[in-house]
Write a structure and sequence with these properties.
- This protein is 51% helix and 10% strand.
- The protein has twelve helices and five strands.
- The chain has helices at 8-21, 23-27, 46-49, 57-68, 84-89, 91-94, 109-113, 121-137, 157-176, 183-191, 210-223, 228-242; strands at 39-44, 73-78, 102-106, 141-145, 179-181.
- The chain has a five-stranded parallel sheet, sandwiched between helices.
- Strand 4, helix 9 and strand 5 (179-181) form a beta-alpha-beta unit.
- The protein is globular.
Length: 244
């Protein structure tokens, strides 16, 4: 039986190609979209501001980076009570001045929750579009977060109103070709399985408890391309934060 002899070129290239298309090799492609030395700013309201607390989602993001050797500069630009008009007004000072590579924008809860002092949907659309446009003009990649539910009752009037704001964010992400982390959908999945009035993900229906922060951090990191093995290592570390 004659053995097929491959030319030297194919003898080198073919095994490499087979490795590349092997399912396990494909699973190792990609990874976190942020590169070593890059900067990400987390722009938001009180939920983001509290994200710098020991069990906050921004702190958990930093812990993920530390555990997995991702050397990133992480800046928290959350201010309690802020709405889309407030964030747009301070975008230059609190985001663009840092010359970030990425910005995570969490905005919408107060625009709805504040009622008459909130921001109507048409104005919200203008504010959010302008923020994304200005970031992109400055070479900043955008991660949009849908607003988390207002109260753990999905049928609350606030959540019914909030759905229109989040639907706009989904459309905006497609139009501007930016990443979208659908936090509302992730929270909705949990709330649909609630069997009591006890708080599950929040302390007061809006602001996160430890579990809510972990859910936010997990969904954000997955959207940014974190691998499952990295997430597992990080979540083991997160458990120590909540159970020292």
């Amino acid at each position: 039986m004659r053995l097929l002899r491959l030319p030297p070129f194919f003898a080198v290239v073919l095994p490499a190609a087979l490795l590349f298309f092997h399912p396990e090799a494909i699973a190792q492609q990609g990874g976190l979209k942020l590169k070593r030395g890059q900067t990400i700013v987390f722009l938001g309201d009180s939920i983001t501001h509290a994200g710098s607390q020991p069990e906050g989602y921004v702190t958990l993001f930093k812990l993920f980076c530390g555990v997995n050797g991702h050397e990133l500069r992480v800046i928290n630009a959350g201010i309690s009570g802020h709405k889309s008009n407030d964030m747009l007004a301070r975008l230059d000072k609190d985001v663009l001045a840092h010359r970030p590579d990425w910005v995570s924008i969490s905005c919408g809860v107060n625009d709805v929750w504040h009622g008459e002092r909130g921001v109507p949907l048409p104005d919200y659309k203008k504010n959010m579009t302008e923020m994304v446009d200005r970031c992109q003009r400055n070479g900043v990649k955008v991660l949009l977060l849908t607003a988390t539910p207002i109260y753990e009752d999905l049928n609350s009037p606030e959540n019914q109103k909030l759905r229109g704001y989040n639907e706009f964010l989904r459309q905006l992400a497609k139009e501007k070709n930016v990443l979208l982390c659908d936090l509302f959908q992730a929270f909705e999945t949990v709330y649909k399985t609630k069997n009591s009035d006890a708080k599950v993900l929040t302390t007061d229906g809006v602001h996160m408890n430890g579990r809510g922060n972990r859910l936010m951090a997990r969904e954000i990191l997955r959207t940014l391309g974190a691998r499952s093995n990295e997430m597992g290592d990080a979540e083991n570390r997160w458990e120590l934060v909540n159970n020292p």
